Amino acid sequence: MQQAEAAGRIGDLKNALASINEIEHRRAALIHQAVHDLSNDAMGVSLTANVLSREGITESDRVGFTAILGRGVEAITVMLGELMELARLEAGHEERELSQFDASTLVHELAEINLAEAGERGLFLKTNGPSEFPVEGDCLRVRRLLQNLLKNALKYTERGGVTLSWGEEKENWWLMVEDTGSGMSSAPVAAMVEGLKEATASARESDEKAAEASGEFAHVLESAETAPGTGITALQKPGEGVGLSIVKRLCELLDASLEMSSSAQTGTTFRVVLPRRY
Fold first, then answer.
1. What pLDDT, in 10s, does the model give residues 42-87?
2. Of 90, 112, 132, which one is at a domain's C-terminal end?
3. pTM for the complete prediction?
4. Residues 129 and 166 sit within 8 Å (Cβ to Cβ)
5. CA-to-CA distance for 161 and 16, rounded, in angstroms?
């Protein structure tokens, strides 16, 4: 019996070590991707600045290249901010700060902030839920989580738009972000996305089977096939891995589950399920 118990403990330790190694592998891949994205943006900024320093450049060209330079600097700033936020979450430096807030007010505020961006790209941005919806939770971090999902949905939706919904079920409440993009095909799971899948432990197995039977997939985040000539998959576009990792960490901090379904016909839906009371 002692030998059997010892063997069982050794097996548990081996599994734990394998899990740690896998986490480190994903973290290394995430850092590599982030450095690659930053290097590309920095190179673009450097080349644009070099063009602007040349003599004889026309005023119209100078204005155009200045705008490009501004966008490059903004992209680098956003990426650095996301990396700092992820580092704080990874290190456990953030704690839940619970309070009462109205989830309906929060969603409407975010929708108003992002309405201009949606309009510029010819996309709709709709909201759908109760007019008053008091909940207990960490308002600031729920806002950050929803903002990440909303920005991602707007970024990769070419036609149609995005719908934000909210509601309740039993002791929980949920937020949902639906887009009409091209969806994600069920190709091999990308390393960055595999980490986010761990946040869906409470996802319903029956929903997965039903989605699979209908030609969709749910609760399993998978990358699309690589686009010809780009080397970038639908879930490996610049900054994508960092944003999804932040969402995963925020879900863990908030005791929330994250569900996802996607198809080329209907787009992608993220659904965050949170406790109504902690």
1. 888 888 888 888 888 888 888 888 888 887 887 777 767 767 766 7
2. 90
3. 0.59
4. yes
5. 43
